[in-house]
Fold this protein.
Amino acid sequence: MRHIISALVVDHSGVLTRVAGLFSRRGYNIESIAVGSSEEAGLSRMIIVVDAEDELELEQIEKQLYKLIDVVKVNDLPARDAVERELALIKVAANSQNRAEILQIVDIFRAKIVDVSSRAVIVEITGGHEKVDAIIALFKPYGIREIVRTGQIAMIRSSRKGESSKS
């Protein structure tokens, strides 16, 4: 079962390596990991997508993360309570015969063309991983030259019970 873990960590070198090493030593596969600044100075937020077979395995992952000195807070973000997004750039082979079809797919998915050449277009798409996977599947028959994906980022919905918004 796919889980999204949000970890607030101290912002200094080596933290990402220690977190990745922990997962590697325990035999847990990281589907994606994204790290960036948080709302608090000196702290970064890691969004880690893992495949955990059950709640016990997820609990073990969280406990192991808390053992790392640089980890301040860990949360499992339930899919129903989280907003998830991913950014992807997809270079698709394009020529005068198929360019209109590719543009139709781009429009349907509310993606955008960010670069055009005589032989290819680069498409930018943002959305859930299912949306990104779906557009990739539609582009495959045209010939995908390159794909770059950021990995999932996620945030708990502000409408969640008991959560107050900061002003």
Q: What stands out?
A: The beta strands are 2-10, 30-37, 43-51, 71-77, 82-93, 112-116, 120-127, 144-149, 153-156. Helices lie at 15-26, 55-67, 99-108, 129-139.
